[in-house]
Give the backbone structure.
Amino acid sequence: MQGVLLNFYTEQNRKHRGRPLAEWLLEEARRLGVSGATLLHAAEGFGRAGRLHAAHFFELADQPVEVSMAVSPEDADRMMARVREEGVKLFYVRIPVEFGSTTD
């Protein structure tokens, strides 16, 4: 299937509507009917300002987090519209991909 790989990047401590932003993104994807999404925690990374974000032994708040989903272009459009509607500001990547399952 031809579709879109949609990745959102944030930090563990970012919240939206009182919940961790990454969890909110997962729940919104589910609510919109997206067939699957993955939440990934990274050890470290840096953003456009060059500031290092990392998971530390005693503090995980600044840990980089990625929410990734391979979806139809229409699902990607609906997800992006929902994020914009909520006024959420975050970095994303949208890449054309082919995806499927080996059991199809």
Q: What stands out?
A: The chain is about 25% helix and 40% strand. The beta strands are 2-11, 15-16, 19-20, 38-41, 44-46, 52-54, 64-71, 91-98. The first strand starts at residue 2 and ends at 11.
